[in-house]
Amino acid sequence: MQEIVRKNPELESNEITEADQTNKSNVSELIATLRNIKTEEQELLLQKIKLQETENDLRNQAMTEIEEKQKRLSGLKSEIAFLQKKCNELEQALGIPVY
Q1: Quick check: helix, strand or coil at residue 44?
Q2: For the ranges 44-53, 67-76, 86-95, which has the lowest average pLDDT?
Q3: Beta strands in the chain (DSSP E)
Q4: Are 91 and 97 in contact (CB under 8 A)?
Q5: pLDDT tens-digit map of 36-50
Q6: At CA 31, angle to CA 30 and CA 33, rounded to 5?
Q7: How far apart are the C-alpha atoms of 56 and 48, rounded to whole Å?
Q8: What is the C-alpha separation between 89 and 95, in angstroms, rounded?
Q9: Are the C-beta atoms of residues 37 and 45 closer than 8 Å to each other?
Q10: pTM for the whole structure
Q11: C-alpha angle with apex 76: 73 to 82, nearest 5 degrees?
């Protein structure tokens, strides 16, 4: 004997509808999650670019300051050498040792 199983058409349509709604819900959640991730990625990329620009600006400022300080040091060394020479000349002229 073969038993014929009949499905209730109302149950089948409910199952399909529930499955469809679950799939739609899952797809909607996936799309929302993907959009959120893309938005966050864009924000992070912008933040990265801004930080890189800030780093470059600070690096350029540091290099400029280093160059200025090196010029100032060079100038001071020249002035000191010139003043030492003048002091030595005056010391010799006066015959007095100055330290």
Answers
A1: helix
A2: 86-95
A3: none
A4: yes
A5: 999 999 999 999 999
A6: 65
A7: 12
A8: 10
A9: no
A10: 0.56
A11: 145
